[in-house]
Amino acid sequence: MTQIIETEAATPAYLPSKILNGAAREDALAMMARLISHTKNKTTDQAEATYQEPVENYLDEELFASEIELLFKRIPLPLALTCELPEKNNHKAIEVVGVPVVITRDSQGEVHAMLNVCRHRGALICAAGLGTSRALTCPYHAWSYGMDGQLKGLYGESTFGEFDKSERNMIKLPCVEKHGVIFVCLTPGLEIDIDSWLGSFAPILESLKLAECHLFSTRMMPGPNWKVAIEGYLEGYHFASLHKDTVFKTNLSNTATFDGHGAHERVAFALREIENHLDDPVDTWDPTANVGTINWLFPGLSIAGGWRQRMAVAFPLPTTKVNESLTEQRILVRTPITNDEREQHELEVMRDWFYDVTYDEDYITGFGVQKGVAVTGGKTQIFGRNEPGVQYVHRTINRLMHEGAEAVHGSDTSKAVLPRIVSGQ
Ligand code: FES
Ligand SMILES: [Fe+2]
């Protein structure tokens, strides 16, 4: 039996990879150059000015309902990863802002998304989580649907009576698989233009090679308001204080790059290892060992550890309550997962470490923020010039809410509830 030796506090090993080449390597080297400069000069990427967000934007029930209608039900949501449905006849059921969704891969390998709702009398068809089946069968009276949502058969059909079966297929949702991510729009009939949506983020997503990864684990984690939750992913200003015994052991604090790409963004932190290479020649640099990236797909798919062998992919989503979110946290590996006892142990350490850091440190703090904003009505949160990623996401939410309002209400957006902004922004 392999002897497992615990390291102190069981910090997961950061394993570099060889996946970077061509333009992606050039891009990563440019980011590493910025981080080396920041490390030498004790600087970090900065926004032009500080930014304020009214606390009501985290509390207002009407605004929250509007966020669901104008954002979450209109934009392409990254609801699954290719590696969660790697085989034909796999499916994944998930509830998103109160909407039950099932995503399938059919016997031809094509993905589909449907409302996870039976067209007989509305029962939920698939239990939450991952599964494999040739058909989706409702547990209530056993109506059965193909993996594309078509009604195939019903129990006791000769006794049921006449109806048009073609009118009783599961309700399809727009769905696109791209670069290892499966995007779903919660409104039937809306089109997903994935190339426009990803824009200049597409080559970054492609470079991560998520489609070739393997899923080790998934855990669900309750959190505070979705905007409070996502803010924690997009800055490294809090590492030295909130994460002093965890993230700060491997990452420098307040030393980061920021790049916006349409609705999406990338924040990269200097790993402590970079301090050993500040004067090394560029052709010896390994960004996979020195740069910690958060590749972030709006409205919140956080891909941490980008090019490394092992990654943590989290997605905080609102529930149906303004002060709650639910995060799906997954651990991915680039090579097929074996039964090797040491590998299993290391992956369990990584899974538990990410869960504990995110929940015990970020989200417990976030629950506190939620209480804090509730008693400071009329006031604002302030984001520093050194928190450009968080500023960017609030501006993006504001922009997309206005675009959603125009799409729904036309030019008269006064009917829509939109985020309050501080005058002068
Ligand atoms: S509700 Fe699904 S079979 Fe009756
Ligand atoms: Fe954090």
Q: Which segments are poorly predicted (pLDDT under 50) over 5 or more consecutive residues?
A: 1-8
- The general outline is globular
Superfamily (CATH H level) name of the largest domain: Naphthalene 1,2-dioxygenase Alpha Subunit, Chain A, domain 1
CA(first)-CA(last) distance:
62 Å
How does the helix and strand content classify structurally? alpha+beta
What is the topology, as strand order, of the major beta sheet? 13-19-18-17-16-15-14
| Total number of domains | 2
Residue share in β-strands? 25-35%
Global mean pLDDT: 95
Which ligands does the model contain, each kind named once? FE2/S2 (inorganic) cluster, fe (ii) ion
In the CATH hierarchy, what is the architecture of the largest domain at level 2? Alpha-Beta Complex
Q: Number of DSSP strands?
A: 20
User: Helix coverage percent of residues?
Assistant: 25-40%
Which oligomerization state do the chains in this entry correspond to?
single chain
Query: Class of the largest domain, according to the CATH hierarchy?
Result: Alpha Beta
Written as H for each helix and E for each strand, in order along the chain, the element string is HEHEEEEEEEEHEEEHHEHHEEHEEEEHEH
Question: Within the CATH hierarchy, at the fold level, what is the topology of the largest domain?
Answer: Naphthalene 1,2-dioxygenase Alpha Subunit, Chain A, domain 1
Q: Helix segment count?
A: 10
Largest sheet: 7 strands, antiparallel
Radius of gyration: 23 Å
